[in-house]
Write a structure and sequence with these properties.
heterodimer; A: 527 residues; alpha+beta; eleven-stranded mixed sheet; four-stranded antiparallel sheet; 17 helices; 19 strands; 21% strand; B: 308 residues
Chain lengths: 527, 308
């Protein structure tokens, strides 16, 4: 009786959506990790978002299936000898509403990208453009930015300094030309399905928040005849176990980040070729607080802590997903040729232990006077396991470790404010270049600010390497910079990350890439 | 009755105001902000973001701005889901959570109430022990254990039902999450119904009813059921509010586009506006459901009257 009345009150509020599926032809179903916060290519942040925006918006420079750079909306470009002027020739492509894509659209987009109100997360990557920093900090009008449209199909970008990774930056989601006419007409709602005008291989068809996003083939795309897929569905599945289950039942063709480390060996034995693992330009390391007054201001202690960590135990026994133990900072798969490694990388463990004990003794620590350290990590089972293992390894040196676990927001806030001694950190490059890694420890960079590390020589090497356009010379400068950092034991690297995805064997044209980009326009599905 | 309802609704205003104010300031006291992440942002970029969301203003100013917007029904934009306002997110997710929660509560009542009554009638027999033992197990096993097992058995191994997804609310997609959501409720309701039924059955008016020579089924249905339902009803108010606002575990495991996830994720992301939105929404829902329960009391129990 009671619940009968309740039913009457609740029933009118029920919404039962009956939506018929109209997908025809080849449809790709992707388990996409999380729900995008936005589909504005200049406001996206995570790879679950850029995977979609890159399918919707072509950039001047695009990615090939292997992640290398190929012409996109720009069919060719010329770089002046001093590396400061880039002249792009646009192809006669069209927006999804049939309007031609012009150099003005590219100028509009770059100005919008650096406008403070856009609050783009990667804006500093474009600070090489003349006046960009001033525009982005509100000190200059966007119209003063060093970009100009010479005619409908010629775009010129003026840099204040030559910048080696600039073309890489132009391949990123936020650098995509935007349809000025559509943004002006639609305002803030321009990313809604039915309103969005795009340039990529696909256009937005449907967005049901937390349920799915459907993109369909764009008939106006310049290479539309080469695109095999008719539509792609992105499902925001956050729980890795659920994504794995849905992949197993065949409901998903591709499931990103869907194998928790605890299920990895099972997946390896049971899913065979579908499991796709490859190196990423990302590093898992412990940040060390080297500020004056901190125990780790002493380089000998930093070296000793580095010496006794058995990285292979972490990569093989704790993780076991094919990660490479790292004695370096810039991941080995990164393009650009930054080499260098810690001096003890090929020593025996006995030799390392002996040297570590010596160093600790010289620093005034030993069995009678143990060193107390705190190690912070953010909440995740694997981070915990690694922290426990590292603490046990350090204990052999007489170091007492207090583990501090906190949720991500608290963890990173403490790290950013320098309130830590040792802290777990992960760094993923935005571009396939050592720039992000090396720049972080240079003065003004994020790791410099968190860890307190500062070296004039290191700063100079990093700065030179940013401007150097000769590849061999640049690789040498970056190697020197990295070696300098490693010789200072400024951090404690643990391993190079790997990407772990599931891809059905019926999918062709999908490759493992270092920056984890997988352009959809090349993908085909076997019958 | 009407004036009572009006009075209760008016009383809800200061309650909600306190809830909103407390949540607003507690959220800001928590360490870490919405832009603290693995990629530390350069100061220029962080300044742009703070300005875009008015986080660069003094806290009292932000509070007044928030309250001002709230009075106009504007919950503000979500920090994480930038293309949506908080109102959009709740409006899109709530019907899904409501539908799922409705069926789960219905299932829980349809199974829990009869089980509780049977256990009470067969008190201290094998039937009673079996029912209460199962109920205890239902309470003890959390739904983050039950849900993956259901998905694995019925979705992957037997392949009878989809393991996840919403598919516009197709019944096949609803079966497993509804069961997972209702198992604990069945257990709670059965236990509560049993306890209150036992109490009612030992009261004087039941003895009188039996003495009049009424059949046992009449005694139960006509006289015992109604008062025995009262404790279950008062439990149902907050329980329904909890269930129809979704469950983060169930939504993530079965990929359901409800609002349950926002309660947890918004707090972890320091998505201040979304946290406030969910708090206000949930608070208002509790107030409303408690009022409905109190009104239903007067229907079930003639001693309770709200007339002035």
């Amino acid at each position: 009786m009671a619940f009968h009345r309740l039913t009457c009150r609740l029933l009118p509020a029920l919404l039962i959506l009956v939506v018929s599926s109209v997908a025809q032809g080849a449809t790709l179903e992707i388990g996409n990790g999380a729900e995008p916060g936005t589909l504005d290519p200049q406001k996206v942040n995570g790879n679950w978002e850029t995977r979609i925006t890159r399918a919707l918006f072509d950039r001047l420079i695009d990615y090939a299936p292997d992640g290398s750079l190929v012409p996109g909306l720009a069919e060719s470009w010329r770089i002046s000898d001093d590396g400061r002027t880039y002249r792009f020739k646009l192809r006669g492509a069209k927006w999804s509403d049939g309007v031609p894509i012009t150099a003005d659209d590219a100028v509009f987009a770059l100005r919008r990208l650096l406008t403070p109100a856009t609050a783009n997360h990667n804006a500093t990557l474009y600070y090489a453009i003349r006046n960009a920093r001033k525009v982005n900090t509100g000190q200059a009008d966007p119209s003063t930015l060093g970009v100009e449209a010479m005619d409908d199909r010629t775009l010129v970008v003026h840099l204040s300094e030559p910048t080696a990774y600039f073309l890489q930056a132009l391949a990123m989601s936020e650098a995509a030309p935007l349809p000025e006419h559509a943004l002006k007409a639609q305002g803030d709602d321009w990313t809604d399905p039915g309103r969005m005008v795009s340039s990529g291989a696909f256009t937005l068809d449907e967005w049901r928040p937390q349920e799915r996003i459907r993109v369909i083939k764009n008939p106006h795309f310049y290479a539309a005849k080469d695109v095999s897929l008719d539509s792609v569905l992105f499902h925001p599945i956050e729980d890795a176990g659920s994504a794995l289950n849905r992949f197993r039942t065949g409901a998903l063709d591709i499931a990103y980040s869907s194998v928790p480390s605890s299920r990895f060996s099972w997946a390896k034995n049971n899913l065979g070729d579908a499991l796709r693992v490859g190196p990423l330009v990302a590093q898992y390391f412990y940040m060390l607080n080297v500020r004056e007054g901190q125990p780790l201001a002493d380089k000998r202690i930093r070296e000793a802590l580095n010496l006794v960590v058995r990285r292979d135990v972490i990569t093989r026994q704790i993780l076991g997903m094919g990660q490479d133990a790292s004695y370096w900072y810039v991941p080995r798969t990164t393009a650009g040729g930054a080499r260098g490694e810690m001096a003890f990388a090929d020593w025996s463990m006995d030799k390392r232990m002996a040297r570590a004990r010596q160093l600790m003794q010289a620093a005034g620590y030993g069995p009678d006077r143990p060193l107390d350290l705190t190690l912070r990590y953010n909440t995740l089972e694997d981070h915990k396991k690694i922290a426990v293992a590292v603490a046990a390894m350090w204990r052999e040196l007489g170091v007492n470790v207090e583990l501090i676990n906190s949720e991500a927001a608290v963890h990173y806030s403490s790290v950013n404010q320098g309130q830590f001694q040792v802290a777990r950190y992960g760094m993923m490059a935005t571009v396939n270049d050592p720039y992000d890694f090396l720049n972080a420890y240079a003065t003004g960079g994020s790791a410099h600010k968190s860890s307190g590390y500062q070296s004039d020589r290191y700063d100079a090497l990093v700065e030179q390497s940013t401007w150097e356009l000769d590849e061999a010379k640049r690789a040498d400068l970056m190697t020197q910079a990295q070696q300098h950092l490693l010789d200072d034991y400024a951090l404690l690297p643990l391993y190079d990350y790997v990407s772990v995805h599931l891809v059905s064997p019926t999918i062709n044209g999908w490759q493992v890439t270092p920056t984890d980009v997988h352009p959809l326009r090349y993908i085909t599905i076997e019958d | 009755m009407l004036s009572y309802i009006l009075k209760r609704l008016l009383m809800a205003i200061p309650t909600l105001l306190i809830v909103i104010t407390l949540s607003f300031f507690l959220m800001r006291i928590a360490p870490g902000g919405p832009f603290d992440g693995e990629r530390q942002l350069p100061p220029e970029i962080e300044a742009n973001l703070m300005a875009a969301y008015h986080l660069d203003e003094p806290l009292p100013m932000q509070y007044l701005r928030y309250m001002g917007n709230l009075l106009q029904g504007d919950f503000g934009p979500s920090f994480k889901y930038k293309d949506f306002s908080v109102t959009d997110l709740i409006a899109q997710g709530f019907p899904v959570s409501l539908e799922l929660g409705f069926w789960a509560i219905l299932l829980a009542l349809a199974i829990g109430l009869p089980l509780g009554i049977i256990a009470a009638l067969k008190r201290n027999t094998a039937v009673d022990y079996a029912v209460m033992g199962t109920a205890l197990a239902g309470i003890a096993v959390p739904n983050f254990v039950i849900a993956p097992i259901l998905a694995l058995v019925f979705g992957v191994t037997l392949a009878w039902l989809p393991v996840g997804g919403w598919n516009g609310g197709a019944w096949q997609n609803m079966v497993l999450p509804v069961i997972a959501l209702s198992i604990q409720q069945i257990a709670y309701i059965a236990r509560m119904m049993r306890a209150s039924m036992i109490e009612v059955l030992s009261s004087h008016f039941i003895r009188t009813a039996r003495a009049k020579g009424l059949s046992e089924s009449k005694v139960i249905l006509r006289h015992a059921l109604q008062p025995a339902l009262l404790p279950v009803l008062s439990y149902l108010g907050p329980a329904i509010a909890g269930i129809i606002t979704g469950s983060v575990v169930i939504e993530q495991i079965f990929g359901i586009p409800g609002i349950g996830r926002y309660f947890v994720q918004a707090a972890l992301n320091r998505d201040y506006t979304l946290v406030m939105g969910t708090v206000v929404f949930y608070g208002a829902l509790i107030v409303l459901l408690n009022l409905i329960v109190d009104l239903l009391y007067s229907v079930l129990d003639p001693q309770i009257r709200y007339d002035d």
